[in-house]
């Protein structure tokens, strides 16, 4: 696993946006998997700035969701479809037809899960998947003890995750849905490049367990250790629990410029 320690969230966003830009230069119609929440916003802001400045052409890019709440009405501002359209698709100047995601309002949720998992494969697979990490080590909505071979499916959120997400619902946990559709860990691992961004001291323990701990279902993000091309980008606060932090700094500093992330 490649670990890159950056000074702050903005630097992490710039670094990952650069990797996305490089991908689009090689593969203009690349399928970019996006995560929601506050952590990846610096990535989308930096990528939008590059597109606006004409430094990267994203006109043929495709975007897909990592997860979606179950039961929110269509068009709800905190549905992840709405969030991705607002924070990624529209700022990049993409059309709605460039976007794909699971239907969390479907009457047949299990069927929606299977349909989305199948659609990702039919689209040629995800080229680069952006990930965040929960304080308990979850990725997507794969909560602790999720199967490492799991596919896109419905999950019940833990109380901690609902508490963490209440800030998006005016602090009212009762408004946070109890169920979600999420790409499974097995589905996530099929992406060609996984890039996880973590910032803040609150993520330090989860990052340390993900990078330096054993691969274990109790820390779903640790499955990234099994991937052939996984990059973990962390700020100094999120790196504070890493025993090998100095080694990671030295390794990345010595990396040839042409190699990229």
Automatic annotation (TrEMBL):
Active site positions, chain numbering: 67 (proton acceptor), 136 (for ring-opening step), 138 (proton acceptor), 143 (for ring-opening step)
Record carries keyword Hydrolase: yes
Pathway per the UniProt entry: Amino-sugar metabolism; N-acetylneuraminate degradation; D-fructose 6-phosphate from N-acetylneuraminate: step 5/5
Domain of life: Bacteria
Catalysed reaction, written as an equation: alpha-D-glucosamine 6-phosphate + H2O = beta-D-fructose 6-phosphate + NH4(+)
EC number annotated for this UniProt entry: 3.5.99.6
Site (Part of the allosteric site): 146, 153, 155-156
Glucosamine/galactosamine-6-phosphate isomerase domain ranges (all copies): 11-230
Activity regulation, per record: Allosterically activated by N-acetylglucosamine 6-phosphate (GlcNAc6P).
One Gene Ontology cellular component: cytoplasm
Record keywords, A-Z: Allosteric enzyme, Carbohydrate metabolism, Hydrolase
One matching Pfam family: Glucosamine_iso
InterPro entries: Glc/Gal-6P_isomerase, Glucosamine6P_isomerase, Glucosamine6P_isomerase_CS, NagB/RpiA_transferase-like
Molecular function terms, GO-annotated: glucosamine-6-phosphate deaminase activity; identical protein binding
GO BP: carbohydrate metabolic process; glucosamine catabolic process; N-acetylglucosamine catabolic process; N-acetylneuraminate catabolic process
Function statement: Catalyzes the reversible isomerization-deamination of glucosamine 6-phosphate (GlcN6P) to form fructose 6-phosphate (Fru6P) and ammonium ion.
Family: Belongs to the glucosamine/galactosamine-6-phosphate isomerase family. NagB subfamily.
Protein name as annotated: Glucosamine-6-phosphate deaminase
């Amino acid at each position: 696993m490649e670990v890159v320690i950056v000074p702050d969230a903005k630097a992490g966003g710039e670094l990952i946006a650069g990797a996305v830009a490089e991908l689009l230069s090689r593969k203009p119609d690349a399928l970019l998997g996006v995560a929601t929440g506050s952590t990846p916003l610096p990535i989308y802001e930096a990528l939008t700035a590059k597109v606006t400045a004409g430094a990267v052409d994203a006109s043929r890019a495709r975007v897909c969701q990592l997860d979606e709440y179950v039961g929110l009405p269509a068009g709800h501002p905190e549905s992840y479809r709405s969030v991705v359209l607002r924070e990624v698709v529209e700022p990049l100047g993409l059309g709605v037809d460039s976007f794909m995601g699971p239907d969390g309002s479907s009457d047949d949720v299990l069927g929606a899960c299977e349909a989305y998992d199948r659609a990702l494969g039919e689209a040629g697979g995800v080229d680069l998947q952006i990930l965040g990490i929960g304080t308990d080590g979850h990725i997507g909505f794969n909560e602790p003890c999720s199967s490492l071979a799991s596919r896109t499916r419905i999950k019940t959120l833990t109380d901690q995750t609902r508490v963490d997400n209440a800030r998006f619902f005016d602090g009212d946990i009762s408004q946070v849905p109890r169920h979600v559709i999420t790409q499974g860990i097995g589905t996530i691992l099929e992406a060609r490049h996984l890039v996880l961004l973590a910032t803040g001291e609150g993520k330090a323990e989860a990052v340390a367990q993900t990078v330096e701990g054993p691969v274990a279902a109790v820390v779903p993000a640790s499955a990234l250790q099994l991937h052939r091309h996984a990059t973990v980008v962390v700020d100094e606060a999120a790196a504070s629990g890493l025993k090998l932090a100095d080694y990671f700094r030295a390794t990345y500093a010595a990396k040839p410029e042409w190699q990229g992330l």
